[in-house]
Amino acid sequence: MKRMMSGVMAATAVLAMIAHAHAADVASVVGALPDPLKAQYDGAPQKILPSAWDNWTPPPKPWKWCHSESYQGNPWRVTVTKELKRLVDGLIADGTVSSFEVSDSNNDVSQQINQIRAFIDKKCSIITSIPGSATALDDAVAAAAKAGIPFITAAGSVTSPDAINVDSNYARWGYDMMSAINKSLPSGGNVLMVEGIAGHPIVAQERQGADKALKEDKGLKVSRSVNGNWTANVTKTVVLQAIATNPAQIDAVWSTGSESRVIAEAFAQAGRPAPLITGSLTGDALGYWKANPDKYRFEGHALLPHWTAQTLFRVAARMLDGQKPKLNTLMIPIPAVHEADLGKWYKDCMTPDAVSVFPVPPTDPMPEDLLDAYFTGAKPTIGWDYSKTPDACAK
């Protein structure tokens, strides 16, 4: 027994030394990043580790690109897939990639796991994904890694140390949006919280940040929390129900999706004063603001599908090109959008019905030289040219 206990203590000591070494490695890498990237790791809820792919050798060309989607039920997610396909098609055209295959599990985590394992069996060169769970996919990700296939996520991290997560600090985003509400309501007020898909990793992170800001401002009171599933018709229904069951004034809506227009419409339909709404800017929201400037108040960010697909593509393409990511989670800053800036983002094709139109930042939110900081052996991304991003009004 004594010998066994000594072995356990020795193993524990070794694990502690490894964890300490990993923490030191991560701190060193993060500390050397440019300030805009370094700031993204402050208070990040994700577990940041050294990359598990720093010695990976890509397979010979042409590569087989596979994409595992967890949901395609709203225009934002459809646009991500469309833009990712446009970019990969460019590599198919020059013979670098042989094929691009997409699966969609429609919010069924078990189905997504099965689809990932099918991609492994098909010997995909790389698997990109918007995961439906932070933890449930870990065994499938480990199986992909064992087969030598990188698994790269966007719009939500997974906890597997074998993944590369192209993510943002959504806890910080949730905090920043609630802080904006705090500033707009110095005397306090009532807040309706409209969250995304229950159980999604981003939802938990965003709420964590919002709750932190709420603790710092005791004047704000949460009237109710509902799940709009990042889907317009669901969001409008739950917001109308929340308004009907909360006769007291609602001063602000903390929302994390692309449905700010339908939230504003719900308040107008109910004859309630326009609240300040947070979230991600969209074309239909800008169209509604242009037509109803007195009924739409906004403070948020541009968490846009085009650059979500673009950063996912660029990290995957760089890895296939032999570049080595330094960390398991590469944080991408989310561009801020203030109410005073709405006119700069508006275009003529943006109407209240333009639900599939998403603004395109005039300049790359993640310039190549900034992305270089995340890679050993960094060089320009193959198949990448931001100037070729489709215009927001392009058909």
Describe this structure in words.
- The protein has 395 residues and is an alpha/beta fold.
- It has 13 helices and 15 strands.
- It has helices spanning 2-31, 35-38, 75-93, 109-121, 138-146, 170-184, 201-216, 232-244, 260-269, 283-291, 305-320, 342-345, 368-372; strands at residues 63-69, 97-104, 126-130, 151-154, 163-167, 189-195, 220-227, 252-255, 276-277, 297-298, 300-301, 324-325, 329-331, 336-337, 375-376.
- A 6-stranded parallel beta sheet has the order 2-1-3-4-5-13, with helices on both faces. Strands 7-6-8-9-10 form a 5-stranded parallel beta sheet, with helices on both faces. Strands 11-14 form a two-stranded antiparallel sheet.
- Strand 3, helix 5 and strand 4 form a beta-alpha-beta unit.
- It is globular.
- The termini are far apart.
- Residues 1-21 have low confidence and may be disordered.
Quick tags:
6-stranded parallel beta sheet; 395 residues; 15 strands; 5-stranded parallel beta sheet; alpha/beta; disordered N terminus
Low-confidence stretches: 1-21
Look at the helices and sheets and give the structural class.
Answer: alpha/beta
Shape: globular
Task: Please estimate the helix content.
Answer: 40-55%
Strand order of the largest sheet: 2-1-3-4-5-13
Radius of gyration: 22 Å
How is the main sheet built? 6 strands, parallel
Query: Percent of residues in beta strands?
Result: 15-25%
Annotation, overall tally of beta strands: 15
Short structural description:
With 395 residues, this protein is of the alpha/beta class.
Q: How are the SSEs placed, and which strands pair?
A:
Elements: H1 2-31, H2 35-38, E1 63-69, H3 75-93, E2 97-104, H4 109-121, E3 126-130, H5 138-146, E4 151-154, E5 163-167, H6 170-184, E6 189-195, H7 201-216, E7 220-227, H8 232-244, E8 252-255, H9 260-269, E9 276-277, H10 283-291, E10 297-298, E11 300-301, H11 305-320, E12 324-325, E13 329-331, E14 336-337, H12 342-345, H13 368-372, E15 375-376
Helix pairs in contact: 3-11, 4-5, 6-7, 8-9
